[in-house]
Amino acid sequence: MICFACTSVTLALAGAREKGFKEYYICQETLDSLFKGNFKSIEELRDFNDLQQSENKYVIINYRIDKEELGTFADIVDCIYIKD
Protein backbone atom coordinates (compact mmCIF):
# COMPACT_ATOMS: atom_id res chain seq x y z
CA MET A 1 0.00 0.00 0.00
CA ILE A 2 1.30 3.49 -0.84
CA CYS A 3 0.24 6.27 1.50
CA PHE A 4 0.83 10.01 1.43
CA ALA A 5 2.20 11.99 4.35
CA CYS A 6 2.46 15.77 4.54
CA THR A 7 5.33 17.37 6.40
CA SER A 8 6.21 20.97 7.04
CA VAL A 9 9.92 20.27 6.91
CA THR A 10 11.71 20.11 3.58
CA LEU A 11 14.34 17.39 3.60
CA ALA A 12 17.59 17.62 1.68
CA LEU A 13 18.09 14.49 -0.38
CA ALA A 14 21.41 13.58 1.22
CA GLY A 15 20.07 13.99 4.75
CA ALA A 16 16.90 12.11 3.85
CA ARG A 17 18.87 9.06 2.67
CA GLU A 18 20.66 8.88 6.03
CA LYS A 19 17.27 8.66 7.77
CA GLY A 20 16.00 5.81 5.59
CA PHE A 21 14.24 7.93 2.98
CA LYS A 22 14.71 7.10 -0.70
CA GLU A 23 14.23 9.23 -3.76
CA TYR A 24 12.80 8.17 -7.10
CA TYR A 25 12.68 10.20 -10.29
CA ILE A 26 9.38 9.79 -12.11
CA CYS A 27 7.55 11.14 -15.16
CA GLN A 28 4.14 12.81 -15.44
CA GLU A 29 2.37 9.56 -16.40
CA THR A 30 3.69 7.82 -13.30
CA LEU A 31 2.74 10.74 -11.08
CA ASP A 32 -0.80 10.74 -12.50
CA SER A 33 -1.06 7.00 -11.91
CA LEU A 34 0.28 7.40 -8.36
CA PHE A 35 -2.42 9.98 -7.55
CA LYS A 36 -5.06 7.59 -8.89
CA GLY A 37 -3.87 4.91 -6.45
CA ASN A 38 -2.75 2.45 -9.11
CA PHE A 39 0.35 1.18 -7.24
CA LYS A 40 0.50 -1.12 -4.24
CA SER A 41 4.24 -0.70 -3.69
CA ILE A 42 7.18 1.44 -4.69
CA GLU A 43 8.44 -1.50 -6.74
CA GLU A 44 5.26 -1.38 -8.88
CA LEU A 45 5.72 2.36 -9.31
CA ARG A 46 9.37 1.90 -10.38
CA ASP A 47 8.48 -0.86 -12.84
CA PHE A 48 5.71 1.26 -14.38
CA ASN A 49 8.00 4.30 -14.62
CA ASP A 50 10.76 2.24 -16.27
CA LEU A 51 8.36 1.45 -19.14
CA GLN A 52 7.53 5.12 -19.80
CA GLN A 53 9.30 7.13 -22.48
CA SER A 54 8.76 10.55 -20.90
CA GLU A 55 11.26 12.74 -19.08
CA ASN A 56 11.45 12.22 -15.31
CA LYS A 57 10.38 15.68 -14.13
CA TYR A 58 9.44 14.78 -10.55
CA VAL A 59 11.24 13.46 -7.48
CA ILE A 60 9.32 11.55 -4.85
CA ILE A 61 10.76 10.98 -1.39
CA ASN A 62 9.47 7.91 0.39
CA TYR A 63 10.08 5.56 3.29
CA ARG A 64 8.73 2.16 4.27
CA ILE A 65 6.99 1.21 7.50
CA ASP A 66 6.94 -2.47 8.39
CA LYS A 67 3.69 -3.62 9.95
CA GLU A 68 5.03 -6.74 11.64
CA GLU A 69 1.79 -7.58 13.45
CA LEU A 70 0.06 -7.79 10.06
CA GLY A 71 2.98 -9.33 8.19
CA THR A 72 3.02 -6.49 5.65
CA PHE A 73 4.40 -2.99 5.02
CA ALA A 74 3.32 0.44 3.83
CA ASP A 75 5.34 2.66 1.48
CA ILE A 76 4.86 6.29 2.51
CA VAL A 77 5.34 9.08 -0.04
CA ASP A 78 6.58 11.94 2.09
CA CYS A 79 7.29 14.64 -0.51
CA ILE A 80 6.99 15.28 -4.22
CA TYR A 81 9.33 17.79 -5.84
CA ILE A 82 9.37 19.23 -9.32
CA LYS A 83 12.86 18.70 -10.70
CA ASP A 84 14.50 21.77 -12.29
Structure explained in plain terms:
With 84 residues, the chain is of the alpha+beta class. It has helices at residues 13-18, 28-35, 42-51, and strands at residues 2-4, 22-26, 58-67, 72-82. The chain is 29% helix and 35% strand. The chain has a four-stranded mixed sheet with strand order 1-4-3-2.
Strand order of the largest sheet: 1-4-3-2
Number of helices: 3
**H-E order:** EHEHHEE
**Main sheet characteristics:** 4 strands, mixed
Write the layout of secondary structure elements.
Blueprint: E1 2-4, H1 13-18, E2 22-26, H2 28-35, H3 42-51, E3 58-67, E4 72-82
Parallel strand pairs: 1-4
Antiparallel strand pairs: 2-3, 3-4
In short, what is this structure?
It is built from 3 helices and 4 strands; from the N terminus they run βαβααββ.
Provide keyphrases for this structure.
single chain; 4-stranded mixed sheet; alpha+beta; 84 residues
